Each structure stands twice: as C-alpha cells, then as structure tokens.
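pasting for the record
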Amino acid sequence: MNRFTIVVVAGMSAFTGSLAFAQPYTPPALRSILENASVGEQIPVGEGFPGILTIPAFNAFPNRFTDVPGTNIYSDDPETVEQFGRLYEANVPAGVVTVYTYHVNGVGGAGKFSVVLENPSETATATVTFGRRGLAGASGNYMLVGRLATQRFFTEPSPYRSTITIPPGGMALMDPEMETRTATLNELVNGWHEFETNQPLRVTSVFVASTANTLTTFPTLGFSPRDGFNRHGTYPAIARRNATAYSYNTGDGMRRVRIGNNPEDPPLAGVDDMTGQNRTLLGNYGIVYEIEYTIRNTSGERLALIMNPRGGAYGGWFRVTYGDQTNEGFVPSNAMAIAPAIENAGVVALLDPTPAPRTLRIVTSPAGAMSLPIELILAPYGESEWVNSDLFLFY
C-alpha cells in the first residue's frame, strides 16, 4: 500500500490514510525504472510484463475508435517495384483524400515515384486544395524514412502547395517535389499527402525513369506486376478517434490502448479499386490517431505513458498535450526503434496529474517500415507533488 496525506476541502479536517492500488498494479520493477526514466528513452519491461494483454483496454469492443470519414489511398504493392509503370489506380469522390505511398526501387536504374491526379469529368473543372504532407527518401534506411514521413506530415507547414485547378479531362501532379527525389536500387520513398477536391478524381501512383516527364509518359504506361501481398487499397476513413474522452483516475491502476491490430483496433476494411476485391489495411498505415483522456489524480501518484511494441521493432512520432502544455517527438529518441520488442518499451510522457480533471490528448500514426501493433499504456508510479498540496481533493 502507498501511504500519503490527503488534505480535504477547506474547512474540513485533514485526513491521513492509505489506499490500495487497483489491479493491475504497475510492477515494482517498472515503478523503479520509471522513477529514473526520461521521455524518449527505451526501458526494459522484461519477462515480468507478459500479462500486458490482461490490462484492461479502453478501446476494447464495444468501445472501439470511431472512424473519421474520408478516402485513404494506400499504395504499397508492389512494395519493391521491378518495372516502370502504374502502381495503383483508384477513383475517389469529392471530399478529403489522403494518399499514402510506400515503394522501393527494384529496377536498378534511377527512377522516381509520383502520383497523377486526373479529372474524368467532361464538363466540370476540379479544384484541389492541398493540406498536410509527409515526404521522405529516397534512402536505403527504411526505418528512418518511415519515421521522417510521419513526423513531417504533422509538423511541416500546411498547405504544402497552392490550390490548383484541373480542367475537364486534364491531369496534374499531386506533388511536384516527388519528381526531384530520385531513387536508386533498393531505395525507399514514403509519401503521405492530404488534399480536398470538389470533384471526383482518378488517383494513380506511378514509377518512371528519373529522366522521364511523368505527365508526358503517363498515358503510355502499363501496370507494374504485383508482388502478391495485396498491400494496396482504397479505404473510407482518414483518422480514428475516441468519440468520448476516456475517463481515467490514477487509482484505476494500469490501462492501455491498442493501435494497429485486432482485437481492439481492427484493420480498416476497403476495396481494391482495380479488381473490386475486398482489402484490409493491416497496420492502419496512413491513419491519424487522436486519443483523449480525462485524467484525475486520485492515488497521489505520478503517471507514465509508455509504448510497448507487440509485433516487432517500432519507433514512431507522438504529440502529447496535457492541459496547456504540448510536447512532441520520436520514441525512442536515440534509436530507430524499440528493439527487441515486447520485452521493452519507450517512454512517451511523464506526467504529474492534477487532482482536478484535466485533458490528456495524444496524436500519432503508425510509422512506415515499423511493425504493429503497439500498446499505449498508462502506468502510475512514484509520489505526486500534489500529495501534500491543499489542492489535493479526496473524492
């Protein structure tokens, strides 16, 4: 038991007592590690942490995340492209669209990955308004490319280019900067783009020789052979969030949220626009996660938010806002990824929650080249500075 003094409301006598921690407890070894940990650091959770999946999950059925409508184009097949050509083609309705491209040059000669927007209308002009962009590569360091593309989507100035119009039957490049990123053998380019269109468009990802004019070459391009893994599709959501903030007291013990896999966070269901076959977005790459909690300190403890990879090595970008304070960065901060996974975790935030309810908000997205799922775990530890404060109220 953790003993501490609680000062009740003004005019009432002070109460000295002890509270038992709710199950599941933060393991003593982990508590000790968190006492000396820093944000961004990799920490061991060891074999004493195999029961993580028994920790209650906020987003367990029927309380799963709510999908934010929009159209997400995911182009990752063939992942390693061995022939110049079109890679994935989809028709999108008017509205908000995100395009996530993840391709490696397997041709040998220098090439460039790009995306062509076509206006199929015979009469209406399409107006395309651009938003956020995360573009990284070309590089043979796939983890670095995946991390940077995610970070840049959230942090670089938006919009990334001015609004354009596409005449009836016309075409345009989604992002002219992609034309400048030459990929040599085994180099990756990862793009994540957001735009809004007032008319339906046809969106096509392509790979052409570095010296080619993409728009001139485009009409003659055939389709590159698929690699058989079916990592491509069109999906009807661009983000996931909890519709109502999760209510959490530090006396509740450990709690978690899963991102990127069943059962708590199922893959998005979509379709291959080229064949009509059903597809699932394993890992939910290119999806923004916005998670909110209402946090209250009822146990006199501090609170850690840690990230535990469950599918393999993982390193990602996180933005954490607590009250009016916001911090953002990579976890881990001094390596590409938490590895080996499962036995280790990364420290995303270290908080000293107030006795009064306050909002904690997390924004992130699965990073390219990383393995999913991950668990985001709230773990009480140590003693809060509020324990002996007149502000600490016992409810």
